[in-house]
Design brief:
This protein is mainly beta. It is about 0% helix and about 60% strand.
Length: about 120
């Protein structure tokens, strides 16, 4: 099993910045991808940014140029640096990981989610 714990959410004024962190722990053999999703009230969960191993990061059009996703492989930690925040960025932000864990002599590939962290952009 993989545990994902997010931190760094909070309340910020429009134009401000926040940095989210997601620490992954457990019996992890490989992390194939990690990403940040967000869900605003009354809306479906959507991808904000993701890092797939061996590929360049992928961003939703709505956050391009304002958000930067990065990953510290040694610490199994994912970050999301958010600048120029807007009211429409208000949402619960969830960390996601596509990871492989040992099961006997084999591997199990699973999709894991954190509990979410609230980001509120308001004056």
């Amino acid at each position: 099993q993989v545990q994902l714990v997010e931190s760094g959410g909070g309340v910020v004024q429009p134009g401000g910045s926040l940095r989210l962190s997601c620490a992954a722990s457990g019996s992890i053999l490989t992390i194939n991808s990690m990403g940040w999703y967000r869900q605003a009230p009354g809306k479906e969960r959507e991808l904000a940014a993701e890092i797939i191993s061996g590929k360049t990061p992928n961003y939703a059009d709505s956050v391009k140029g304002r958000f930067t996703i990065s990953r510290d492989n040694a610490k199994n930690t994912l970050y999301l640096q958010m600048h120029s925040l807007k009211s429409e960025d208000t949402a619960v932000y969830y960390c996601n990981a596509d990871a492989e864990t040992p099961i006997g002599h084999n591997r199990w590939r699973g999709d894991y989610w954190g509990q979410g962290t609230q980001v509120t952009v308001s004056s």
